[in-house]
C-alpha cells in the first residue's frame, strides 16, 4: 500500500499545480467573445484566448486521419494498439508507425478528449439557440436573450457539462481502461491540462465574464466535479445515465470553496492511480 500511497501523493501534487496554472484570467473586464478574420476562408470566427491567438491543432493531418478511423474501433477494442492498427488500415496506411502516432494509445485517448471538447461549441449553439460566430458585435448570450432563451451562467454550465458527459456514452464501458493509461505519471500533466481546458471552454461558452479571483476557483471546482461525475458514470447502470446527472447536479450545488475542489482532485487522482495499478495487475504485473 505504501508505494500506491506515495504515487497518489505525487499525482495530487501535480494535479494541484496544473489546476492552478492551467489557465489565465482575462486581464480586462471587456472579455466578451472577440472575432477575427480566418485568412484561409475569410470567415469570422470566435476565440477566447486572452493573451494569445489559438494554438495549432492538437494533431497533424496524418494523425487525425488515423485517429479518426481508429476511434470507430474503440467500442470493440478499447483505446489500444489494436484499434490504432485497424484505424491505420482503414485510413489507407499499410501499418502504424510510432513516427505517425508517437504516443500510441494515449494519442487515441487524447483524440477523444480534444474532439469532444471541440464539439461543445457548435453543440452549445444548438442548445441555447445562439450563433457560434459574432453577429454585428453581439455576443451569443445577448443573441440568446433576444430570443427569450436567457439562462443563468450556472444553468448553462450544468447543461454543457452534462452534454460533455453524454459524449462518453458510446465508450463509457472502455473508459476505466483509458483512466488507467491517463494515471501513468508521464501522462498525468497532459491529462490534467486537457481537463483544465474543458472547464475553461465550458465557462466561456456559458458566458461567464467574471474577472475576480473566483475565475480560478470556479474552473478548479468544475474540473474536479466533471472528473468525479465521469468516474461515477463508468459504474452507472441507470436509464439514460440519470443517476450521473443527479450526481452532477448535487456536486454543482454543493461546490463553493477551493478547498473542496482540491479534495475532489485528490479523489480523482487516487481513483485513476488505483485503476491503473489494477489494470497492470490484471496483465500479470507484480505490483
UniProtKB/TrEMBL annotation:
This is Ubiquinone biosynthesis protein. Pathway: Cofactor biosynthesis; ubiquinone biosynthesis. Residues 39-59 are annotated as: Disordered. PROSITE patterns: PROKAR_LIPOPROTEIN. Gene3D superfamilies: Tetracycline Repressor, domain 2. Membrane-associated protein that warps the membrane surface to access and bind aromatic isoprenes with high specificity, including ubiquinone (CoQ) isoprene intermediates and presents them directly to Coq7, therefore facilitating the Coq7-mediated hydroxylase step. Participates in the biosynthesis of coenzyme Q, also named ubiquinone, an essential lipid-soluble electron transporter for aerobic cellular respiration. The lineage of its organism: Eukaryota, Fungi, Dikarya, Ascomycota, Pezizomycotina. Its main location: mitochondrion. It is found in: Mitochondrion. It comes from Apiospora marii. Residues 188-256 form the COQ9 C-terminal domain. Pfam families: COQ9 (PF08511). Belongs to the COQ9 family. Residues 39-51 have a biased composition (Basic and acidic residues). Keywords: Lipid-binding, Mitochondrion, Transit peptide, Ubiquinone, Ubiquinone biosynthesis.
Amino acid at each position: 500500500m505504501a508505494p500506491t500511497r506515495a504515487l497518489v501523493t505525487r499525482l495530487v501534487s501535480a494535479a494541484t499545480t496544473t489546476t492552478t496554472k492551467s489557465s489565465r484570467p482575462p486581464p480586462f473586464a471587456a472579455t466578451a467573445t472577440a472575432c477575427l478574420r480566418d485568412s484561409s476562408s475569410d470567415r469570422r470566427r470566435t476565440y477566447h484566448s486572452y493573451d494569445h491567438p489559438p494554438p495549432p491543432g492538437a494533431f497533424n493531418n496524418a494523425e487525425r486521419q488515423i485517429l479518426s478511423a481508429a476511434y470507430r474501433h474503440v467500442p470493440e477494442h478499447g483505446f489500444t494498439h489494436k484499434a490504432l492498427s485497424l484505424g491505420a488500415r482503414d485510413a489507407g496506411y499499410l501499418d502504424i508507425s510510432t513516427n505517425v502516432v508517437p504516443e500510441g494509445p494515449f494519442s487515441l485517448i487524447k483524440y477523444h478528449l480534444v474532439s469532444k471538447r471541440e464539439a461543445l461549441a457548435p453543440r452549445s449553439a444548438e442548445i441555447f439557440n445562439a450563433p457560434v460566430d459574432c453577429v454585428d458585435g453581439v455576443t451569443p448570450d445577448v443573441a440568446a436573450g433576444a430570443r427569450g432563451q436567457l439562462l443563468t451562467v450556472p444553468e448553462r454550465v450544468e447543461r454543457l457539462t452534462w452534454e460533455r458527459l453524454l459524449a462518453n456514452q458510446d465508450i463509457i464501458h472502455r473508459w476505466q481502461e483509458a483512466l488507467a493509461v491517463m494515471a501513468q505519471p508521464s501522462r498525468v500533466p497532459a491529462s490534467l491540462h486537457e481537463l483544465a481546458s474543458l472547464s475553461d471552454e465550458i465557462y466561456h461558452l456559458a458566458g461567464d465574464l467574471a474577472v475576480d479571483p473566483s475565475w480560478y476557483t470556479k474552473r478548479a471546482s468544475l474540473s474536479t466535479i466533471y472528473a468525479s461525475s465521469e468516474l461515477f458514470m463508468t459504474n452507472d447502470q441507470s436509464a439514460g445515465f440519470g443517476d450521473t446527472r443527479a450526481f452532477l447536479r448535487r456536486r454543482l450545488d454543493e461546490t463553493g470553496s477551493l478547498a473542496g475542489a482540491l479534495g475532489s482532485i485528490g479523489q480523482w487522482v487516487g481513483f485513476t492511480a488505483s485503476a491503473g495499478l489494477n489494470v497492470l495487475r490484471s496483465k500479470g504485473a507484480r505490483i
